[in-house]
Amino acid sequence: DEITAEWLSGALSRRQPGVQVSSVRMGEPVHGTGTNVKLSLEYDRPPEDGPGLPDSMWLKAGFEPHFESLAISGLYQNEALFYDQLAPRVAISVPRCFYAGADRASGQGVIVLEDLAAAGADFGRATRPLTAAAAAVVLEALAGFHASTWGCTWMSRLDFVTPGIPTAGPGASYFLEQTPDVFRTWIRERPDANRSEERRVGKECRS
Prior knowledge:
Elements: H1 5-13, E1 20-26, E2 30-31, E3 35-45, E4 56-61, H2 67-71, H3 75-86, E5 97-103, E6 108-114, H4 132-147, H5 173-176, H6 180-189, H7 201-206
Antiparallel strand pairs: 1-3, 2-3, 3-4, 4-6, 5-6
């Protein structure tokens, strides 16, 4: 309810001063670890400078019932902090970010991103094999990302960046809970996934 034209005007003005949103229409939310919703916008006034803003964007935030149990790990706020403080400084291609805000007290993070479908992006699927050329693009992107921070010292000043998987502190709880017994429980809860007739994906992919 708080994602209004007025709120968007203020949020988008942080990076593009002077923009005024007259109306916003929200699509059907996509629920998962976070909440994703497509925004269709109309403007009273375009930005005072810089590139124009598109008519459609995607908003992502932690509006799910499981928010509190995951927010303690920093999951939501860290994604917003990545887009705000880290993405502009590393060599990696990411969706254009129009707003990124984090509330460290609650652990909430809100980002407003480019509509990649409107930009003609091709979305991958786990059941569709990658070509060798596509896999090479992914590996080159990862290599470029790591190379751009090789030997740097400025990242140590970003308190939300941690080396490796945390094993202590509030952010470690999720990872420490992933024990063999937990995985055995998941397997018992989905016995249908172990049936031979359910293993049809490989054949479908090769057809």
